[in-house]
Amino acid sequence: MASEGDRRAGPEVAARSSKIIGLGAGGARGVAIALASTVVVFVALGVAITHAPGWHEVRTTFFNWSQFRSTLPEISRAFLLNVKIFCIAEVLILVVALFIAVIRSLPGPVFFPLRALAIAYADFFRGVPTILVIAILGFGAPALGLKSVPTSTTFWGIVALVLVYTAYVSEVYRAGIESVHPSQEAAARSLGLTRWQATRHVILPQAVRRVIPPLLNDFIGLQKDTALVGVLGAIEAFNQSQIDVDATFNFTPYLAAAFLFVAITIPLARFTDWLIIRDRRKRQAGALA
Amino acid sequence: MSALAVEGVRKSFGRTEVLRGIDLELAEHEVVCLIGASGSGKSTLLRCVNLIEPVDAGRIVVHGGEVTRRGVDVNRVRRGIGIVFQAFNLFPHMSVLRNVTLAPRAVLGLGRGEAEARARDLLARFGLADKAADYPDRLSGGQQQRVAIARALAMEPKLMLLDEVTSALDPELVAEVLEVIRELAAGGMTMLIATHEMGFARDIADRVCFLDDGVILEQGPPAEIFSNPREERTQRFLERIVAAGRM
């Protein structure tokens, strides 16, 4: 019955402390309530999991600290490949997607074929699962046996990720371009700037600034999806963890790999949130002025 | 040779015919004010002259060159025509100085030093010398509109089009912008001005044109139009303006 008593003690103590903290101040009271409910939820979850019938098994196969420590260095080294793939792909995506977004926003009937191509591209690569694009390119392209075509799995993995993510990111850019009021282009053109000069100096700088938060959101996805390149056989973090799992019959290396991914995606996610909040404050300040 | 000749210009948006045959000529150094109710076609006429809107019929000739002919280099035409909009339309991501130097540098290929020197002269002339480094959202409406005028003048246009440049301003900021325009007129700038400021039009214009339903119904010296309009519709328009306390 001791555990029952513990369960009850948690919220009571928390409630009492929230009363003490919350004297008068609404903000502090809010923090206390949030703290209390968080503690309740996690204690309940912890109790539920650790009291599950198979908990002992799971703890030794998934949460094995010595396994974690012994495999982390090797998985970290493999993870450098994920970082490399991510960095190269991100730069290429930023450039190519912007190019496609600009093509898609070209007006007039003359550019219809280019616009149609850009639309078809975005539709196709947003529709096919990333892992299929990686598999098709990674196994198919080297099989062509062309001398000038690299056979490196990393190379084709990057190409596949760039193709897929460029489709998404070009849509993000396009939304930004369309959000710039037409009067801005009219003002630029009225000064004698060509359409390209107006796009480059006036439209794009404003468009890109507005879409930085959604862009970062896509890059959080890209960081994770670098693990998919593992299906081609490149030894990146996921593949390395799989090798370790196979060697030891212990699943803790998966956790080590997950830990590494989370360690770089969470800071980026918080940074994105911060940018969104800052942007909102700025716009509200602008509306008040 | 006239500075601007508009001949039989027509323009429709969908089924609405906004300009129904406009004929208008401006001599060099002449200041012409367009007056008329909202929707009478004043803004559309200015936008057609600047080639922001293509005309459906008729010709527009600027300093002897037809700008409405097919295959004309619109960018070259616009260099010589400055336009200032009701809503300022400054570039919000650029400082005041860059707003003014962008076109001279990108279009005329001026060096940074020369473009900035020219821009600083213009800004100083309009009382904005200390605002060069500020961003547009830090400025009042009147300051923003003066920057917009400086931005247009930086291209050294021979013709200026002003599209209700004081309509978006708080009343106390109107005077500072009108002062700048008076200075331009005194300097001999040829200007076509769409305006609701009747007192200003009477002061500054060599000629006033009353636009009604897409045609110029009546035109003449301001004294004549404002004191002794011939057309009944002009009389009624001016009566409404007086009743609204705008004159």
Summarize the structure in words.
- The complex is a heterodimer of chains A (289) and B (247).
- Chain A has 289 residues and is an all-alpha fold.
- Chain A is built from 11 helices and no strands.
- Chain A has helices at residues 2-21, 26-50, 55-62, 65-104, 112-127, 130-143, 153-179, 182-190, 195-225, 237-248, 252-288.
- The relative contact order of chain A is 0.11.
- The model of chain A is unreliable at 1-24 (pLDDT under 50).
- In chain B, α6 links the parallel β7 and β8 (190-194).
- In chain B, α3 crosses α4, α3 packs parallel to α5 (141-153) and α5 runs parallel beside α6.
- Chain B has helices at residues 42-49, 74-79, 96-106, 112-125, 141-153, 171-186, 198-204, 222-227, 232-243; strands spanning 4-13, 16-26, 31-35, 57-62, 65-66, 81-84, 159-163, 190-194, 207-212, 215-220.
- Chain B has 9 helices and 10 strands.
- Chain B is globular and about 55 Å long.
- In chain B, the strands form 2 sheets. In chain B, strands 6-7-8-3-9-10 form a 6-stranded mixed beta sheet, sandwiched between helices. Chain B has a 4-stranded antiparallel beta sheet with strand order 2-1-4-5, with helices on one face.
- At the A-B interface, α8 and α9 of A face α2, β6 and α3 of B.
